[in-house]
User: Fold these one by one.
Assistant:
Number 1:
Amino acid sequence: MANPLRREVRQLYKNLLYLGREYPQGADYFRERLNSAFMKNKYVTDPKEIRKLVDCGEDVIKELGTMYYLREYSIMKKRFYEEELLGLLNIGRPTD
């Protein structure tokens, strides 16, 4: 593997490992799956094929970012509507 590609592959692995800390099924589950995916392609030496795999990994990073964003958005939305519902029912607010 050429040095620039090697650096990109290592950086991709590190980025995915970092993003996997908040994976819904747990960081250990994500790390095992990530490690097995990288080990499966360990013997790929064609630069074009490595580039294709790196691009696929970058797409996974985008998907994980979207998944985390949607999860955060749904939590915020739930909190907002809970507060709005409590306000409509006058629960938890002092009355005059």
Number 2:
Amino acid sequence: MNLVDWFRGMVASRLGEELLDPKINERPSSRALKRVLLVCLRCIDMDASKRTKMSQIVRMLEADDLPFRKVSISLLYVEVKSSIEL
């Protein structure tokens, strides 16, 4: 199994918290974790033309009002599951 497939599987199984480094003392909020997972998913999209540029990724991680901030975990699950099945 490659790293991308493993990551997608973890997110699809709603095991995003298990992706965190156990040595990190301060756990991120669920909102912050969801934001990072969504950004990661955009970086590994199967369609290379849909992948976000690194400069945009940096802005997304720094922005206070991300366009996908209100996306629910359910939608994240559907999005990952769809991309895995492709």
